[in-house]
Specification:
Helices cover 34% and strands 19% of the residues. It is of the alpha/beta class. The protein folds into 2 domains: 207 residues, DHBP synthase (Alpha-Beta Complex), CATH 3.90.870; 95 residues, 3-Layer(aba) Sandwich (Rossmann fold), CATH 3.40.50.11030. The longest helix is centred in the C-terminal third of the chain and has 18 residues. The radius of gyration is 20 Å and the shape is globular. Bound molecules: adenosine monophosphate and magnesium ion.
Length: 329
């Protein structure tokens, strides 16, 4: 199969809509990472997502809709706090989990009685979702467990020959996947951290829990139990306090003839003397935005990425540390 990368215009959107209508897959940009979309109402189309990605069949997908879509068609028992949160943060990188009406096919939620819904703010995503006017089931558009894609080229590198069309909306500015928030209880509960932080949610909703898996309990966000986001080279991860140990490991690896690099923020880079650096930038937004791009750059150029965690660990960094630990830990 030929894989086309097309910028977003009326012609490419017509083509995308035709593919979705006949049960095919289209990769599209969002403000977080690129998604691999299918009509959430078509079982065979959704199954294709799992097959193309090699995704475990118990890891549910998020249904994406445009900003004027009435989600009460798909879900019920929307609590008051969720309405406030939607007003404050949507469209944007916040996925909200509700009780499903069972309208989308069961493969989307892997048989759970809940449905995760996201309204992306990326203009290209909105145009695509408006054009099809359907709930689009979409995980990240990468091979399962690889680093998520933040450019059309990243999608192509993983899925070339497996899908017909990649809508190119430029580089994603968010960089890590959406915050996933359970809105089925009395208090919202973060299942996966992201750019909309727990504090931001608590400020609007009054309270916000963070999910911790308890022993013996069925995991509430199945995706979180898998190793994820791994680059195709060796990795190591050091805390900020152990950054000089990272430099020692770098030197040992280099002396052994390996192509090693250190991935860190620009403040830590200053302590790394003449080491080869994958620079994540300075503030937390930049670090989130650059993380997957640098992991993908690193796996192409180096045998080993030695990552140093940023000193700051709260806010957006909770989400970054979660990804970094899974990628390099
Ligand atoms: P991905 O699309 O690869 O970013 O993964 C989607 C994430 O959303 C996974 O971590 C899932 O576990 C989570 N998710 C999707 N649907 C649900 C749901 N109904 N309940 C809880 N978590 C969900
Ligand atoms: Mg993913």
């Amino acid at each position: 199969m030929n894989t086309d990368i097309l910028s977003i215009n009326e012609n490419s959107l017509d083509r995308a809509a035709a593919i979705i209508e006949r049960g095919g897959l289209v990769a599209f940009p969002t403000e977080t990472v690129y998604g691999l979309g299918a009509d959430a109402l078509k079982s065979e189309a959704v199954k294709l997502i799992y097959a193309v990605k090699g995704r475990p069949s118990d890891n549910p997908l998020i249904a994406h809709v445009h900003k004027d879509y009435d989600i009460s068609q798909l879900v019920e028992n929307i609590p008051e706090y969720a309405k406030l949160l939607a007003k404050a943060f949507l469209p944007g990188p916040l996925t909200m989990v509700y009780n499903s009406r069972g309208v989308v096919c069961s493969e989307v939620s892997c048989g759970l009685n809940t449905l995760a819904i996201r309204v992306p703010s990326h203009e290209g995503a909105q145009r695509f979702l408006k054009r099809v006017n359907l709930p689009i089931a979409a995980p990240s558009a990468n091979i399962s467990k690889h680093v998520s894609p933040v450019t059309a080229r990243h999608v192509y590198d993983d899925l070339c020959g497996k899908i017909e069309l990649i809508l190119d909306g430029g580089r994603c500015t968010g960089g890590i996947e959406s915050t996933v928030l359970d809105c089925t209880g009395d208090v919202p509960c973060v299942l996966r951290s992201g750019l909309v932080t727990r504090d931001m949610i608590a400020q609007v909703a009054g309270e916000c829990d963070v999910y911790m898996m308890k022993e013996g309990e069925r995991v509430r966000s199945p995706g979180m139990k898998y190793k994820h986001y791994a680059p195709g080279c060796q990795t190591a991860l050091y805390s900020f306090d152990r950054r000089l140990d990272a430099l020692d490991e770098y030197r040992r690896r280099r002396a052994a003839g390996q192509r090693a690099c250190i991935m860190c923020d620009c403040r830590t880079a200053a302590d790394m003397e003449d080491a080869e650096i994958l620079d994540l930038g300075s503030d937390e937004r930049q670090i989130a935005c650059n993380l997957y791009d640098k992991l993908r750059e690193g796996e192409k150029l180096f045998d080993v990425i030695i990552a140093v965690a940023p000193e700051k660990q709260d806010g957006v960094m909770v989400g970054v540390m979660n990804r970094l630990t899974k990628a390099c830990g």
